[in-house]
Amino acid sequence: MDAPPPLRSFGRIRSRTLKPRQASLMETLLPSLRPPAEGPIDPLRLAPGARDAWLEIGFGGGEHMAAQAAAHPDIVILGAEPFLNGVASALRHVEEMGLRNVRIHDGDARDLMARLPDAGLGRIFVLFPDPWQKARHHKRRLVSPAFAAEAARLLRPGGRLRLATDWADYADQMLRVLLAEPRFEWSAQRAADWREAPADHVVTRYEAKRLGDCAPIWLDVFRRPD
């Protein structure tokens, strides 16, 4: 089988000049929060005493990631985001909330995922990823069969993958992808299971803007036992 093409992030890297405080945090705080730059990563070794590791892919401004970290101080939260203004915003939340269990990869999440061990994560969040609305750009969407297979590899049995989008056709694609991955189980029983936000969700500024073409759709799936 041919090797897959190199990973590439299609998201914006920077949209505006960083404020002085943000620029300072990028220089002083971010280096201490980055996972190792090379080699395999044991996520539980990133934060002493962590009992589990969760991953948020595309954390935007970092509100959800910071809130989850504050609510679960015994869990190390890894966040991946290529958008530098989002990283800078997340660093502000980390500093202001005194969080010690957040680690940030300021780049493509797939680079980080490839270096994490099998069954090393308890949860993965992908909340409102770039929808790439134009049909010719759909191939750029993060959620694909290859992504689902990698997420299934990373989650331990019983671990959860949570996807959310406010674009109807992307929700349809996400669901098709998840149902086609045999290691995932979707346990929804009624419409509220995908129409209502999960109890532990934290609304972000992006979500509140309602920029999509439908109300948010939530897809929570579980990793089946091997």
Summarize the structure.
By secondary structure, this protein is an alpha/beta fold. The protein has helices at residues 20-28, 30-33, 63-71, 84-97, 109-113, 145-154, 168-180, 192-195, 205-209; strands at residues 52-57, 75-80, 102-105, 121-127, 155-165, 184-186, 217-223. Strands 3-2-1-4-5-7-6 form a seven-stranded mixed sheet, with helices on both faces.
What does the model show?
The protein has a seven-stranded mixed sheet with strand order 3-2-1-4-5-7-6, sandwiched between helices. Helix 3 (about 65-70) runs parallel beside helix 4 (about 85-95). Helix 4 links the parallel strand 2 and strand 3 (about 100-105). About 30% of the residues lie in helices and about 20% in strands. It has helices at about 20-30, 30-35, 65-70, 85-95, 110-115, 145-155, 170-180, 190-195, 205-210, and strands at about 50-55, 75-80, 100-105, 120-125, 155-165, 185, 215-225. The model is unreliable at about 1-10 (pLDDT under 50). With about 230 residues, it is of the alpha/beta class. The longest helix has 14 residues, at about 85-95.
Which helices and strands, and how do they pair?
Layout: H1 20-28, H2 30-33, E1 52-57, H3 63-71, E2 75-80, H4 84-97, E3 102-105, H5 109-113, E4 121-127, H6 145-154, E5 155-165, H7 168-180, E6 184-186, H8 192-195, H9 205-209, E7 217-223
Helix pairs in contact: 1-4, 3-4
